[in-house]
Amino acid sequence: MLCAALVFAVAQLPAPASGEGELPLALAEDWTRAADRYWLGEGLWGNRLQDWRIRDEALECVGPAGLRWRTAIAAGAWSRADEPRRLEVTVGAGSDELEPGAWAGFLVGAGGAGPEDGVHPLHGLLVQGTVGRGFGWFAGVSASGQLAIERLDSPQAVARLDARAVDGRPTPLPADGLRLGLDLEPDGEGGHRLTLEARDPESGEVLQRVAAVAAPADGDLPDVGLRGQVGLVADPGPSGKGPGAAFRFDDLRIVGREGAVEPRQELSPIVSALYTISGDRLRLTLQMMPLPETHAGGPTSAVLSILEDGSLALVSIEEVLPESWTASFDIDDWDSSKSQTLVATVFVPFRMREGVRTIAGSTADPYTTYIDVPRQPAPDAPLEIALLNCCHQVSHDLVGGWGASGGVDRGDWRTGSWFPHADLVANLAAHEPDLYAFVGDQVYEGASPTGVDRQNLELDYLYKWLIWCLAFRDLTRTRPTIVLPDDHDVYQGNLWGEGGIVATQQQAGGYQHPAEFVAVVEATQTSHLPDTAHPGGVIAQGLPARYGELVWGCASIAILEDRKFKSGCLDERMPETDTDRPDHWASPPEDRALLDPPGLQLLGEAQEAFLARWAEADRGARMKVAVSQSPFAGMATHHGAALERLGADLDSNGWPRSGRDRAVALLRRAGAVHLAGDQHLATLVQHGIEAPGDAVFDFTGPSIANFYPRAWWPSLAASGRPAELPQPADYTGEFTDGLGNLVTVHAAANPMEDAALRELAGGELSPMALFRGMPGYGLVRLDPGAREVTFECWPRFAGPGGRQYPGWPVTVRVAENGSQERAPD
Predict the structure, then answer these.
(1) 358, pLDDT greater than 60
(2) Which InterPro entries does this UniProt record tie to the protein (predicted)?
């Protein structure tokens, strides 16, 4: 029941010991020079972003009273379990109204595994909210002054803490706080002795001491949950009242012998970089942590330079926008004939004190990151595009809700935390693609890893977006990257954008959240894209339109927005559905024309006009590709945890059919293939307009991670997973989807049996809850010489030399991609 608000300290390289037997310092933070801000420093990560801040030279937890989430957050991955460790911090009450059952202290062993177990050093970074296996051990003090050590592996453990907090005569925390020290000593038999003491911060007098033994248990790692990340935790208590998790921390020190601490994982204020190059123009966006203002009262700035022969040449200086915490650079005359390295630097203001002189008059600390920009592939050389979408960070069993039995909080953090997706990142990087396309749902508003905080909507989004940035930053800083927001990115379950209007009801069309919030999403995810092709650049509410063209190597790529202009399905001319949802049909009407009244839009008139111009234009690229959020057909017949039968889905881009037909016809005129995501179900289809297979190929890539499965089982009329799964002959070939669209299905990554997944992987798989969702990544190989396109669909556990999902790869000739192929140059 420990608070929703948690902090991860990411361990730094240990310093040399100053004396024999002394433990070297791994992390030290006292925040003396730190200005007030939400970025906690290079060694700390706050869960959630809005729940932790630096204020008045101390770390403060401000998590709300109603948000316990039964959790704590930790920092620093310990790679060895047989070495002693020590943690120290001064903790005090941030309010005199804390309830006696509030707690603050340390968390050790978050994530239940370390790098020596084969997991990423940041595996436990998001641990919070649900106690369970792999959550770790808590050692701390209650607001009533009671010390406790407890393994947080069950709700019963939290109940014991609640009882202990009010056991005996309450002694509130002193005004100056307590100095907590936690020692972890291996006992030589696979266990540990944990000793927690509280001292007077001024005199050093020991006021209390408690101890516990972590002994080996069946089924556990030898260190009984102590292997993992370490950090701080604050909990507002069980009542849901009071000021929240109002604790203050100061002078944090984490020490351990060399080898007991994982090498430093910096959490720089520059979290990631996104860039594109089209022609001779480079556009780049740096994503920052929320930073303090300068001492002059304005936003801080970011500096971009080119590294040439060991020296830096200034390119540009741009302000960091305080709404999105981004700095965007627009560079003309970029020389894409050679690879280059960019160096980005941001200056973080520190706290100024009267009478204190700074070195050379400096009032800010510089932080730097490097961005590798490859040379542009030759126009006659093959080009490889990586296709990704739909990124959940944790299993839903960790937080209850969708897919969790009875909505009960339960879970195992050792297998339920999928962040930072290290297996997928490593396997994908090994292919060395030329361009990445992330086409939607980079962020999920609910339970990924936390629910929606409507009181702090923009900070809540930034918290989840920054998690995505941390996971994929090593990819996006080395290759051009397309990013397109989808419905969940703007905190909607579905999106019929209606040109950017305000939504009175989701299915009626428009955006449900304030335009300022949507603008933050657009700035963080799309401000690095090439110039918009939309007349005037903006739509209703002043929101940006971002569709346009990118030319890279042999490819001219149309970047489309298939949600932003789509008509809402609550149109008075539409017949009432036969379900409790206005967008779902169990059995759509036989006359599908009833579902397509005149005037409905999919891409919108202006975007269709752009697509028509693009289809005819010649920018010197030999191949054409379109990317958007979702495929132009209803390619799921079963959906959700129960795999319920779905007759027609008006959220799919098979609706409205007239708009779909216009879009597909324009792509056919261009001879372009279409790439998309959204469905949690990888498919490769060839569209038909007048006849089966007379239009373009459409590849929907698999999700990165999901817990909402879908299937294309057109032969099954019933809901539920059948005892015997359909075979490819049952779901490939010529079909009409539930909206009347013609599709020729070449492959579909439908749910598989566990044994078949293990056979595909060539061994055991864990966690199965992740792999049953058929996650992975797509690769699209363009060969301008052979005039061929190869579609590949990879499980996330597979890299080069591994096996793809059944049915892939598929190679098609451009001449097969509809009947109106553009002649080769």
Answers:
(1) no
(2) Metallo-depent_PP-like, PhoD-like_MPP, PhoD-like_sf
